């Protein structure tokens, strides 16, 4: 059996050398992303959401595209298992898969449409300059968008439209992953919660749903707060309030718990420690801080998604993805104790640190 296994491994190795399928897949991986992006941007999944299966000509007519181009796009989506196809009277008819109905249509509560748009229209453009980012060790907002990289969020929020796109991205991410991170630890003892950089309020809404005795304040820049009030958080959400400010420049109000969700990965260790120290000084005794981040393995061997996210942080921000021990080190230096890590099994994990008054 051992000899057979060795021989089989040898054959596979020879086969890979003769036909490097993995490298070819990686080389052309952007074709998959752009196919998904185009289908979403054109409205293919929305068009096929209701009603009977449609022909390529019907989809093309409804979406005002060429029939030839749409035939090719729909066939590729079938190959990617994003659409079903069956033949009737010699003609292919297309319909959404269950997964596409849930995640790729705009009206679905779990829609990733806005995440896909942001990846297509913003991140993809930044990644055109990945080689430069690696060579220079800094983000590429100036080359990609013609905006200064001096102030990170001036670049990320370079227009009202771009700010809304980013907020919609955050909203769709937390609609998928949010409940796992806000329930990774029992947060019910924390009655006053500040979500620093709370953006669209998606996590705040999940917090008040899971912890009925808690009040959550979204602390963010004035223009973000204004947009969140107008487009994302209903005035009927009585246990969610807002605080306008810059968490680096302005005082932090006292609270039981501060949530930093996908915040520290934007910043250098120095800026991250500055913010954590500020949080520690504002925290009530017995309170704490909850970090929500994509965590690298301690030996940095994975997960692949987080390794790629860290490259994205290089291209877009001043920060990086980190290991649990790196975050624990920053939190401990700021003064937090009893630091615990909880993996969720999904992209984002949770780290909870406690504040105990120093004697």
TrEMBL record:
Occurrences of domain O-methyltransferase C-terminal (ranges): 127-336
Name of this protein: Acetylserotonin O-methyltransferase
Assigned keywords, A-Z: Melatonin biosynthesis, Methyltransferase, S-adenosyl-L-methionine, Transferase
GO biological process: melatonin biosynthetic process; methylation
Lineage: Eukaryota, Metazoa, Chordata, Craniata, Vertebrata
Active site: 265
InterPro entries registered for this protein in UniProt: COMT-like, COMT_C, COMT_dimerisation, SAM-dependent_MTases_sf, WH-like_DNA-bd_sf, WH_DNA-bd_sf
Top-tier EC class: transferase
Residue ranges of domain O-methyltransferase dimerisation in the record: 24-105
């Amino acid at each position: 059996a051992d000899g057979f296994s060795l021989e089989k491994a040898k054959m596979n190795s020879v086969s890979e050398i003769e036909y490097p399928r993995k490298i070819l897949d990686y080389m052309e991986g952007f074709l998959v992303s752009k196919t998904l992006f185009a289908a979403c941007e054109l409205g293919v999944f929305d068009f096929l959401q209701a009603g009977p299966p449609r022909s390529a000509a019907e989809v093309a007519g409804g979406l005002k595209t060429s029939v030839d181009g749409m035939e090719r796009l729909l066939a590729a989506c079938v190959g990617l298992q994003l659409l079903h196809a069956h033949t009737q009277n010699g003609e292919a008819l297309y319909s959404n898969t269950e997964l596409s109905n849930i995640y790729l249509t705009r009206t679905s509560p779990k829609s990733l449409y806005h995440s896909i748009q942001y990846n297509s229209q913003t991140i993809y453009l930044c990644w055109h300059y990945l080689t430069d980012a690696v060579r220079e060790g800094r983000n590429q907002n100036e080359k990609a968008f013609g905006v200064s990289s001096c102030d990170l969020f001036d670049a990320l929020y370079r227009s009202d439209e771009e700010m809304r796109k980013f907020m919609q991205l955050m909203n769709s991410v937390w609609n998928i992953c949010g409940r796992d991170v806000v329930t990774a630890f029992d947060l019910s003892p924390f009655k006053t919660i500040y979500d620093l950089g709370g953006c669209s309020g998606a996590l705040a809404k999940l917090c008040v749903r899971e912890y009925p005795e808690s009040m959550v304040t979204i602390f963010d820049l004035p223009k973000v707060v204004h947009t969140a009030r107008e487009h994302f958080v209903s005035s009927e959400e009585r246990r969610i309030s807002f605080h306008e400010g810059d968490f680096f420049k302005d005082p932090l109000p006292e609270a039981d718990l501060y949530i930093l969700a996908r915040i520290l990965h934007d910043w250098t260790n120095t800026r991250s420690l500055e913010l954590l120290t500020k949080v520690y000084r504002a925290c009530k005794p017995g309170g704490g801080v909850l970090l929500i981040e994509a965590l690298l393995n301690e030996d940095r061997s994975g997960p692949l998604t987080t390794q790629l996210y860290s490259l994205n942080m290089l291209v877009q921000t001043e920060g990086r993805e980190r290991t649990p021990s790196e975050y624990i080190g920053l939190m401990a230096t700021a003064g937090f104790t009893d630091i615990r890590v909880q993996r969720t099994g999904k992209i984002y994990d949770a780290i909870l640190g406690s504040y105990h008054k120093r004697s």
